[in-house]
Amino acid sequence: xxxxxxxxxxxxxxxxxxxxxxxxxxxxxxxxxxxxxxxxxxxxxxxxxxxxxxxxxxxxxxxxxxxxxxxxxxxxxxxxxxxxxxxxxxxxxxxxxxxxxxxxxxxxxxxxxxxxxxxxxxxxxxxxxxxxxxxxxxxxxxxxxxxxxxxxxxxxxxxxxxxxxxxxxxxxxxxxxxxxxxxxxxxxxxxxxxxxxxxxxxxxxxxxxxxx
Length: 212
Hints:
Helix content: 10-25%
Radius of gyration: 18 Å
Strand order of the largest sheet: 6-1-8-7
C-alpha cells in the first residue's frame, strides 16, 4: 500500500474533555440516540473516552483513554454480517438499529439537511458504523495533492478528532513513512497496542505516561 494510515494517542496529554467525541459526531453525521437507547446498548459513538481510577483512596488519580476503531490489519474486510459487532474486542462497531433521521424528512427536512456534513452520507438503519479515520478527509487531501502534482505532506490530513484535540494528544499520519511523526511515535519505548496479544495488528499506538 502506498500509505498506511495510523494514529498515536498520548495518554499523558489526554484530559478527557470529550471534544474528539463531539467533533466526530459533527463530522460524520452520527445520530444522537439519547440515554434510553444507549442504555439498551444502542449508543452510536464512533469514539469514546474511557475513565480509569488509579491508586487507593484518598490518593486516587483519574486517567483517560480515547478508544476508536483500531483499524486492525488482521481484520479489515466487511462480509455484510453483524458478526464483527458482537466479536470486536474493542467494542467500537455500532449497528444502526433505527432510522434516526425519519422524523426530519417532511416539514423540517430542509433545516435538518443544513446540519449535515455534505461530504459524508447520512446513513439509515441497518448499517454497521465505525470510525474510518475520517476517510472523506483522506480522499480530499489526496485529490488536492494529485491536482497539484505533489506528494501528501506529513500532518496535512487531520481527522476530526485530531483537529479538535487542544491537548494535542492525538497524532495521525502515514505509518509507511518512517519520518512521519506518527511513525516515530509508534516506535517509541512508551508505545503499546490495545489488547495486542489478540493478534489483531492494530494501527493505533497508545503512549504510556512517563514514570515519575
